[in-house]
């Protein structure tokens, strides 16, 4: 008699997995390049174009590729609700944090138009 309980991977049970692990690996590599780019931006001497080349190479592709892959794997069933939640949190929590910082004497000096490394 064949057992009704089988705890093995789905591929052995005849079920086709719905997740494409190649996309997961690609997103993992791109996340690593984000970390590497930030590390290079904070640590390297950037006086010469040759020294800046690795950072420029990473920044030329990693975020567009990550956004593309995230768009492929995104589920849009609750997208309007998720966007609304994000915007409500963005426009309520951040002003509250800046107000709290101002009350306690911390200077919330932050420019949205200037990157942190310039």
From TrEMBL:
Residues 21-116 form the Acyltransferase domain. Keywords: Membrane, Transmembrane, Transmembrane helix. The keyword rRNA-binding does not apply. The chain crosses the membrane at residues 28-44, 56-74, 86-106. GO terms for molecular function: acyltransferase activity, transferring groups other than amino-acyl groups. InterPro entries: Acyl_transf_3_dom, Nod_factor_acetyltransferase. The keyword Membrane applies. It holds the Pfam family Acyl_transf_3. Signal peptide: none annotated. This is Acyltransferase 3 domain-containing protein. It comes from Brevibacterium antiquum.
């Amino acid at each position: 008699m064949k057992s009704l309980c089988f705890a093995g991977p789905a591929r052995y049970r005849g079920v086709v997995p719905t997740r494409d692990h190649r996309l997961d690996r690609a997103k993992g590599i791109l996340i690593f390049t984000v970390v590497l780019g930030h590390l290079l931006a904070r640590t390297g001497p950037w006086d010469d174009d040759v020294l800046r080349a690795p950072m420029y190479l990473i920044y030329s592709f990693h975020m567009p590729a990550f956004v593309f892959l995230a768009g492929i794997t995104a589920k849009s069933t609750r997208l309007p609700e998720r966007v609304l939640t994000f915007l409500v949190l963005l426009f309520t929590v951040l002003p509250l944090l800046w107000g709290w910082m101002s009350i306690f004497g911390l200077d919330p000096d932050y420019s949205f138009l200037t990157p942190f490394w310039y």
